[in-house]
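Sequence in, structure out.
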Amino acid sequence: MNISYLRTGVAASPRPTILLAMLAACVGIALTSSAAMAQRAKPAAAAAPAAAGQGQAMLLETAGKWQAFSSQQGRAKVCYALSKAETRLPANLKDVEGLLFVATRPTEGVRNEISFVLNFDLKEDVEHQALIGSERFALVAKGQNMWLKNPAEEPRMLDSLRKGSALEIKGTSKRGNATADKYSLAGMNQAVKRAEDACK
């Protein structure tokens, strides 16, 4: 199965928010057969600059609630495991999906970067949280995206994800409303390993 995605180079930014937005668009198509979701994804993909170039994201494996993909654009290869939120609060946000990525980009020296695309605008001047069992991790937001506040904690969070069964993301929307997304970690280990192997 192939799905197209657009990749833009944002060399000045340590966190590729545009790349995440484009991945989020293609994930909508990959994770559901809904025609409505496919229609929602098209405007997001079309919004990317024409100079960005176009590549192919290929589904490598499905494991539990997770999928692994790889993509090549010139010499740059991107591999990632992803899952979508199983539940979301408040209920009025249920029509837009939360997505969790674990991405590897060898040409940038990035390995197993954890990030989220919530698909609604987030409050940027507050701390958000990821909860895995008794473990808590501080998150920061930019636009509709989230990352660990301290990137040095990524190995510890990845280890917690591998050992855990569920993840909850507690955030605050741009309007100040509390939000909560819950993800299953079933299949996460297998999907992350498959993505890692594809980008060795």
